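Risk register update: the risk of archive-format incompatibility is retired. Evidence:
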Amino acid sequence: MAEMLWVLLGVAVGGAAGFGLGRRRGPTTLAPSRAEDPHLHSISRLAGSLAPVWSAQITSSRTQMETAVGTLTERFAEIVENLDTVLESSTGVLDEGQGGTFDRSRERLGGVVGTLDDALSSKRATVAELRTLLAFNDELRQMSGEVTAIAAQTNLLALNASIEAARIGRAGAAFGVVADEVRQLADRSAGTSERMASKVGHVESTIRTLLSHAEETAEREDEAVAGANAEVQAVLDDLQGVVAGFRDSSATLSRAATGIRGDISASLVNLQFQDRVCQVLEHLQASIDRLPAVVEEAGERARTDAPPIDPDAVLGEMEASYTMAEEVDAHRSGSGAQVRDSEITFF
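Archived output:
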């Protein structure tokens, strides 16, 4: 488009110069007629009218493109920021180094199962103590039986002594009293032994009841703890499966987010064309803005018989204003130029 304008500029300047030269070769007086030449005036007026229109169109297009690309760049930047936040959050939740929810839950459940195992061990120790008490009670029963037998034998001996004392007569009266006292002691020992046997039997019954209840309770608790262990392990296995699924999904999401982030970053780099196009349009607009002055100068030179303007000098001035190598390449070759990779600035 710039080349086309400069061609038009050349045509305008050349036409003005040629028209002035043709006028100069005519038979009439040149200076007054050139000063009011309608052709030069119309060309100058056309250039002065077209340049603002072209400049306004370029400005409008550039503004719209800058606004659209700027908004698109901001949206892409927000998307990249959100992706970074999601990736950071996902990695933090499932990060093994910081202790995941699964590991903490397994540790706490393990503590609960350990407490149940300790309670069951204590109950088993109680059952063992009860069995020991039951053995001691059997020994007491045996000892009570022995006391009863001793009392019976003592009673028998006392009875025999009383008989012998009675048979001796008055001389054995005192011995008979002793024998009677011994027999009474034997009766009391037998009574005490019977009460001891009764108490031992009651204690044995109580211990057996407690032992039976403790064994039943221990058995139920053993089964409950075993069931709790199985349930806890099943829950942990399910949680581990869920966490593994989350980790797989997180890894997939991370890879997808990383890919999207890379694509958006590449798109942001490609959006730099807007800045390059704006620079080209600014230089083109400056050239268009200068066109009326150049045409006016060319007409003025034609009217005053001054030397024509130098198109090469005008083009050289235009080339000197370029800031990108591709502008220079397009200017010199007259065709579109490729963007050089070394000129791309990454965000």
